[in-house]
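W.,

You were right to be curious about this one. When I first looked at the sequence I had no strong expectations either way, so I just let the prediction run and decided to look at it fresh. Below is the sequence, 405 residues in total, followed by the output.
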Amino acid sequence: QHYKSITFIEASLFNMASVASGGGSLLGSLKRFDAYPKTMEDFRIKTCGGATITIISGAIMIALFVAELQFFLGVSIKEKLLMDTTRSELLDIYLDVTFQHLPCDHISVDAMDVSGGQQVDVDHDIKKRRLKADGTRINEEKVEELGNSTVALVLDPNRCESCYGAETADTKCCNTCEEVRVAYRLRGWGLESLAAFEQCKREGLAKALTDMKDEQCNVQGRLRVSKVSGNFHISPGKSFQQSHAHVHDLKLLQQFPLNLTHTINSLSFGEFVPTQTNPLDNHTFVAVELNAMRQYYVQIVPMRYQKINEEIVLSNQYSVTHHHKAIDLNKAARGEQSGLPGMFVTYDISPLMVEVIEHRRSFTHFLTGVCAIVGGVFTVAGIIDSFVYNSYRAFQKKLELGKVN
């Protein structure tokens, strides 16, 4: 039994030695795949130049990491082109234009399109703000309040005043100067002077037209038109329809110089989106001649903008070219010249649509970018450090050999 026990112990020790030997060979094989061999601490040389490069490279890595993080947290834009299938919708035109030498009473806003739709002398969703010559706003509410309080004390509210021959079956009375002017426009008659009408003399409009000659006018608001090719214009003279023709009454304004200098503060087609740029914003046209006709030819490209929260906004981008010419009113009245003084915007709509989608970068892209930053900076810093150290060693050896004075 004693002999058997000794034999069993020897066998166990042999097996343990074999396992240890096999494990050692396995670890030795694994060490051969180490791509980052270590050197002993005693053989490492630390220099001031290396420390400086390390600090600089660390600062660069931190700055690049912050920039990469901001890019990851920000919103990226992806664009693609497709056919526009929203033809049946309406088009909103937002405008803000200031005329530096035209009073608001001289201006009318009109819109028309190729489908036959017309909006004459638009006043809904359009505001005309009277401005002084220096650009400050005139308090019209106070002026109207003072004027109306005087008139209300004198005039009978049930009166029926003359339209001076412009009466129609629907219009028998003209109690205000504006009603007289409308009745004349419906008849197709021009007004050469307001002084001949009692209503206009009573309201002081004949004198007011002269007093307003140095005023500016800001036209601001929205036009809603069909989403087809068309134009809108802001021109002097009251506009009206006569025998299916679009007419502006300029007889009353012949005594005033029509200077069409204007500034387009903003002009957009549709709602604003973050990537939208409007080429006509803050555009100024200086008319060197009177009775100028300024024409803007706009090419509209519909845009579908999808925000990061999946909200969809339909808007438009546009490009523009422009042209202007001077209009001789006498030749235009005789039909010898076409055109009308004013600001004309003619637009055409592209059948293509730009789809813009906001999205965020994936985390794997962010991780890849961070790894590239760290690895790239370390590699470049190591190359620079090696170059500096070896150059310094070579220079130092030359000094020791006396080859450098």
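Here's what jumped out at me. The longest helix spans residues 363-401. And, maybe more interesting for your project: Helices lie at 2-31, 48-73, 140-154, 177-187, 198-203, 205-211, 329-333, 363-401.

Coffee later to discuss?

I.
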